[in-house]
Design goal:
Largest sheet: 6 strands, antiparallel
Shape: globular
Radius of gyration: 24 Å
């Protein structure tokens, strides 16, 4: 279940063995990986690479030597996973014309490839949200498909994509099909792609999120249906893995997953990460004590600037430079330690779909048709950090909010007659979850197996198809937790109020919620006042890093490998500000640092391969 590299010959070029070998060597130099298996079938060559911890399913060959199948990520099919799931999947009518009925049983976070040398073709299947990132490009008239955009960029000697870099430096993620590099595209979600003769021959969607929306779905989701769907996921995971561990925090989403796990009767352990007095830690430890869970509390092992810096450099191989290394290094630290004792991790990502997430931007017209402002959503949820004037050398014709308004408008094409809640759900799932959360999940799946039950098909559909009045203001998730386990719902959240529904009999428990709502309203009001400050991150990931000589030398504007992306004056100002005040602008600084690390690693790998 590790990474993939696939190269297919074009019509006017033969697949030179050195192109495939060079791609494998780049995987070794850039990510420290050596293939566990290689297959050459006709015009297509495939290499499969391992995860950092634990076994990874290799390339599956059936009775027909001309056919092969492999995958990346963590996939499930017909209640099985790994090689068994691939074998069962290969027995279906899987192909370029596959529809929802053919792939209804596939779940998880994955990119699955299958090839047929007799037809001189191969296909790629992406997961429903496109969360497992997989990329394609053309190099020397050959098609290259891989889970690593960094490897593809090195192989193609690709130039920077100004728009992709703009998005990453401004907000920390890249959107639509873009990457940091020109000519390298991310494959979209829920699709089967057929490649032949080194070109994309067809693309078919096997699932459409809009078909599960409240006004379009042939069914209606409710609390019992969502609870049953989550319990079914927990049962499937418990059946396939011996030592699963689930992330437990002080919020709603992980608590709902825990409720489903408890009802499934399967054996799971729990973990919380953070310092002793963190609210999430205090609540998770209380839940574990009351329910007698086999629970672990982990603290960060990145205690010194040198450890943070070493972790950041290590993180690059997992993120391809598409997520800030000064933040992913802590995720990598957590999962690397867990992977030594467990075989899969569960988390509550995507639980927001049961809570009417972001719907406050639609007030007072929640659930109406029309009354959807692309620019308001862009400014409120994507472009709120703004961008540093003049930092990038490339000039753009629109402002950042206008740019993201265009992305949102394109994402919602075809949903014009749906309620505004469906449009915002679509934006959240196809933009935020695919590119931001998906980049984190893709990186973590390079460490070991991980999955998010709320992202499986049935839980997603049961939540999305529930009436907006049921989901708004956390109503559905509160009722869900109470339905799964009333005792679990009664324990206060990290904010101090319980996960129970708000009723006359429970109203006295919700004093902290009233304070929270007042604070949120005041915060929103301040956005409209002159001189308001930009939001700051809650932790300081760069504290003390400028004392590391290696980093300090790397970020000399005169010698930066990625320096051509920036204007000299603003770049020097940003770096000087970071050195003088190691909190101000730390997110933007971390993104510039990430790009520079990426540029240097690709340059060093290219020089090493050229020298040999």
């Amino acid at each position: 279940m590790g990474q993939l590299l696939i190269i297919q010959e074009g019509g006017d070029a033969r697949l030179r063995q050195d192109l495939f070998r060079t791609g494998i060597r780049y995987f070794h130099e850039l990510a420290g990986l050596t293939p566990t298996q290689e297959v050459r079938c006709g015009a297509t060559a495939v290499a499969k690479f391992p995860k950092r911890f634990g076994p990874a399913t290799g390339i599956v060959r059936g009775s027909d030597p001309k056919r092969w199948m492999c995958g990346a990520g963590t996939w499930f099919y017909d209640r099985s996973t790994g090689a068994e799931a691939l074998q069962r999947l290969s027995a279906t009518s899987l192909g370029p014309d596959s529809q929802d009925r053919d792939l209804a049983g596939i779940d998880g976070l994955f990119a699955i490839a299958f090839g047929d040398a007799a037809k001189e073709e191969f296909c790629i299947l992406t997961d429903r949200l496109g969360s497992l990132h997989v990329y394609m490009a053309t190099v020397d008239s050959c098609l290259v498909v891989s889970t690593s955009s960094m490897v593809v960029a090195a192989l193609a000697k690709a130039a920077w994509d100004p728009l992709g870099c703009r998005e990453f430096v401004a907000v920390g993620s890249i959107y639509e099909k873009r990457t940091l590099f020109q000519g390298i595209e991310k494959l979209p979600p829920a699709s089967v792609f057929r490649f032949q003769d080194g070109r994309l021959k067809s693309q078919t969607k096997y699932w459409d999120v809009s078909s599960a929306m409240y006004d379009a779905a042939p069914f209606r989701g409710d609390v019992p249906a969502l609870a049953g769907a989550l319990e079914e996921v927990a049962t499937t995971i418990g059946r396939n893995f011996n030592r699963p561990v689930m992330d437990l925090t002080g919020g709603f989403d992980s608590r709902a997953i825990l409720g489903a796990v408890l009802r499934s009767g399967k054996s799971f352990e729990t973990v919380v990460n953070g310092v002793d007095d963190l609210p999430d830690v205090l609540v998770a430890n209380r839940i574990a004590a009351q329910f007698g869970l086999n629970h672990r509390h982990q603290k960060s092992s990145l205690d010194t600037p040198q450890q943070v810096w070493d972790g950041a450099k290590d993180a690059l191989a997992f993120t391809d430079g598409e997520y800030e290394v000064l933040f992913y290094n802590r995720v990598l630290d957590v999962h690397s330690r867990l992977a030594r004792d467990f075989d899969i991790s569960l988390n509550g990502s995507n639980g927001e779909i049961a809570k009417g997430y972001w719907w406050e931007l639609l007030f007072p017209f929640i659930g109406w048709k029309g009354h959807f402002d692309d620019r308001r959503v862009a400014a409120g949820r994507f472009a709120f950090e703004g961008e540093m004037s003049g930092l990038l050398a490339h000039r753009f014709d629109d402002d950042l909010a206008g740019h993201f308004a265009g992305i949102i408008h394109r994402a919602n094409a075809g949903l014009e007659h749906h309620p505004n809640t469906a449009k915002l759900d679509n934006v959240y799932l196809t933009l935020r979850m695919q590119r931001w959360q998906g980049r984190i999940a893709s990186a973590t799946n390079r460490v070991w197996n991980c999955t998010s039950p709320f992202m499986w098909r049935r839980p997603m559909e049961m939540a999305l198809s529930a009436p907006p009045s049921m989901r708004v203001r956390n109503r559905m998730v509160r009722r869900l937790i109470e339905y799964l386990d009333p005792k679990l719902a009664a324990i206060p959240l990290a904010q101090g109020y319980p996960a129970l529904p708000l009723r006359p009999g429970t109203a006295h428990l919700f004093g902290p919620l009233a304070q929270e709502l007042l604070f949120a309203a005041t915060k929103r009001l301040r956005r409209f006042l002159p001189g308001r400050r930009q939001p700051q991150v809650s932790v300081n990931p760069i504290k003390g890093l400028w004392s590391i000589e290696e980093m300090s030398q790397m970020l000399d504007p005169k010698t930066m490998v990625s320096g051509s992306l920036y204007n000299d004056g603003p770049l020097a100002g940003l770096l000087r500000q970071s050195r003088d005040d190691q909190f101000a602008g730390s997110r933007r600084f971390g993104r510039v640092l990430t790009i520079e690390l990426l540029a240097r690693r690709i340059q060093a790998a290219g020089r090493k391969l050229a020298a040999t």
